[in-house]
Protein: DUF4398 domain-containing protein
Organism: Lysobacter silvisoli
Amino acid sequence: MTASFAHFRFPLLALVLASALSACASLPPPTSELSAAQQAVTRADGADADQYAPQDLAAARSALGRAQGAMSSGREDEARRLAVSAAADADLAWAKSRDAVINAELAQRRAEIADLRRRLQNGDAR
């Protein structure tokens, strides 16, 4: 007896159906993304981003609020996208803030060095 395609049709159909169903399975709720976004906003707040990167921090807060709203409305894909965007904006605000603080400290140290050099050249032992 020779095997025909008809004998393989049911297992093949079951495999295709199982693959299609697994592809349609939804992702878990974006709770980790929301948590990461909240932490990023908190970290940016702690780095004085309100002073040094207010637009980026405001964008992060806005996206986080919209993500939380989308999550509570059951729009998980939108919540995930907004949470990732909020985290990116907050990370940018943190980086800009740290850059501004470090550059201010560098300028202060350079001014101190310049003052010390001037005093050494003038013989001021103060």
Q: What stands out?
A: Residues 19 and 25 are 10 Å apart (CA to CA).
